[in-house]
Amino acid sequence: MRTLSKTDFILYRECPNDVWVKIHEPDEYAKFPISEFEKSLGVMGNEVERLARGMFPGGLMVEGRGSEAREYTQKLISEKTPVIFQAVCATDKYLAAADVLVWNADADMYDLYEIKMSSTREEDDDEEEEGKPKKVNKKKELQYEYDMTFQVNVFTMCGVPINNKYLVRLNKEYIKIGDLDFSENKLFIKEDKTEQVNNLFENTKFEISQAYEYLSQDKMPAGPCPCYYRGRSSHCTAFKYINPDVPAYGVHDLNRIGNSKALLKSLLDDGILKIEHVQEDQIPKLSKTKDGRPGKPRKLNQVMVHKSQEPIIELDAIRSELNSLTFPLYFLDYETYPTAIPVYDGYHPYQHIVFQYSLDVLRSEDSEYEHYEMLVLDGDPAERIVEGLRSIIGDTGSVISWYKAFENARNRELARLVPLHHEFLYSVIDRTYDLMDIVEQQYYVHHGFKGSSSIKKVQPVLAPEFSYKDLDVQSGTDAIESYRQIVEGELSGAEAEEKKKQMLLYCKNDTEVMYILWKFFNNLVK
Prior knowledge:
The protein is of the alpha/beta class and 526 residues long. It has helices at residues 6-14, 16-24, 26-29, 36-52, 67-78, 138-157, 194-215, 239-242, 261-269, 298-308, 315-323, 382-390, 404-417, 422-431, 437-440, 455-462, 476-487, 493-524; strands at residues 4-5, 60-61, 83-90, 94-104, 109-119, 162-170, 188-192, 312-313, 329-338, 352-362, 370-375, 398-401, 432-434, 444-445. The protein folds into three domains: 34-215, Lambda Exonuclease, Chain A (Alpha-Beta Complex); 247-310, no CATH class; 317-524, Ribonuclease H-like superfamily/Ribonuclease H (Nucleotidyltransferase, domain 5), CATH 3.30.420.10.
């Protein structure tokens, strides 16, 4: 087997079989390519690391991972070079590269700095209550610590003891004003992980030895991978190859099954893979919300409609929801770019740049809807986006979104960026109705939704005549990547103009679909 890298070790801790396929069956692994958006995240990560080096002036870069890079690293270390970027150490089994080594004269050793693309809080603010910080992702924190401990183990094996261990990542509280500020606790935060890494050192040393032996096997270990007992969204890259008996739609797709590990394990241990084989008494009738209140029987409903192939429809509840709306109706959808490094003044790391909206206006139940749109690809779009909306959205009427938490989070951010329209934007927030609630609250449950309330799952069932398939931009992630390609100059001229048309069509489709779904539900309860 080739040497074990830090990346493969971290993947191994998630799913050993997945890494085995990656190493021993690369052609099979290549059948599950990453998306263009995922590739762009890699580019973004490289940019974050490049900028973070601004905290360490005068550093020397080690290029590559081969023997020359290792020899150069040893030379720099022997000379006690003050700052080294991408230092490489390797044994006959393991290879590690350190983002930054800084010479600590007092300790007569190097300090290690690991740069991560994440921020000091989770990037997704969609469901965050204003004024309340999100909880630390303990699993992600532990992954970072194992990542660093792997490096420390390999460097120690190569005779390079490490003193302090620091994690460097973006500071979510930093607000860009003028040039990026690389001084401590500004754009980047330095966190001391020495104690955590030291505590993990011996255990990691044992684990990397186990990983090397496991991944050196000629045949993939029999049986399902650890992901077998996880919900679909947590499956590894090669899950389908490793677990060929698992159907494309089955018990792994039960609503929020990843949060019901005991239930999933019970079903799988009983040999139940298909939803039609689930007995209704195996599913708890009521789930519970995070605060302990009774929830909705989502999994049970999903099983029932799958077996009967008949929808569950609560007409009175749907009618009550729709009767709460006030004309004119404004169907609103944003497209955004959550850039890691703030580009414009007033933004913090990972704040979404709202660069596009589609807005359909229905003046009365019987009128034709009016379509408005805006796409801004030059400079900070915030003020132009808000002023465009303000010229169309009146002081009365309901604003309709699908998953309003996202749009409202953006509206709060826009209110901070464009304070002149703070009152207007908070009025929009107060008047926003989430059309997804009809599905999410289980007032309309269809087997074709497959337990999801995503508009991309609901639309093909309730509006099958409508389709995104002919568009070059077919999803929000496609729109994000399109924005990046144009703004960064990867697309220009006729190619950029065509991409802009596709971006406008995609966003227009999102609001048109909301109108069609509103009309479907409205006709249903007449």
